């Protein structure tokens, strides 16, 4: 019964015509086939369907692929139909445009032919006029040539006159130019001479400014030395006053000693008690000397070593010393004077000369040394304060100093290596060595 039903359904399906088969239709048919397989399995079991199921699935898959291809082909066909319709519409439009273009060409050709005819008539007219004008031109040409020749002759005569006048003026201007050139050369020579004089004056002015700066520095140094010398002179005056007081006391002591000697002489002359007189005289001298020393010590304070030397020099063992106008010196005193006035003046002069040389060398070093921003600002302020209201002068070229004088001698690598090995300190700079040498040359030994 079921087999008959299946055959019937197959005949019905064979008689039907499928125009458009889609993937959804294939899925619907697969669902119907699955329901039928469920029924068969429910009625007859799995064995009745096991061999048929793969074939049906394979057929459905092929049907699905064919349906998908069919859909794609239908889409392409629809697109091709639309493009064909567009091309046909474009073809019809182009045909219409071509017909219009041909009509316009015909109209343009007609117009062109009419214009050509008109232009040919105009050309013929112009040719006739050209012939007529050529003939009239030839006639007028002869007349014009005659007039031009006459005018040319007159213009030549006038030009000759003008050229003669111009030649005379050119000669005069040439002479004027020669005189002006002579004056110009003379002026240039004068300007060069003035420029050379100005450069010399600028150099002299620069030297004078440097000397002025050095003199100012020397004046400051001399003022400082003058103040120091005044202080030292005051100290010396105080010491001289003390020495004068000591000399006065010494003179008093000498007078007392002379009186004692006179008394001793008188006692020696006496014949009654010679031995007692001598003993009393010695006792008197011994008692008077400590009193004088005590008085001088109380008035002037503690006596220095040179006072003790003066006492030893004025003892009775050295009679006949004249201390007036003389100075007592202790050889053990480290501050005793060792130079005469002439030697001291000579040493001071040498020191001043060395200081002036040192100042000049420092000025030259500052002049040739590369300046920093701060130093330049200070120097500009000094120059403005010194030369306010004056124009800055242009200095001439200066001879280049040697590199040894400008930069100094640098330590070599071997010297640095050995100083690093043996632990020596860094060598003092060149300027400090020069200062030490100058101080050692000036300081008295």
UniProtKB/TrEMBL annotation:
Any GO MF annotation of the entry: small GTPase binding
Biased composition (Low complexity): 284-296, 307-319
Domain called RH2: residue spans: 336-417
InterPro entries named in the record: DZIP_RILPL, RH1, RH2, RILP_dimer
Pfam families on file: RH1, RILP
Record-linked CDD domains: RILP-like
Domain RH1 residue range list: 9-97
Annotated GO biological process: cilium assembly; protein transport
One cellular component (GO) term of this entry: ciliary basal body
Domain of life: Eukaryota
Keywords: Coiled coil, Protein transport, Transport
Stretch list, region Disordered: 263-331, 366-385, 423-445
Annotated coiled-coil segments of the chain: 60-232
Protein name as it appears in the record: RILP-like protein 1
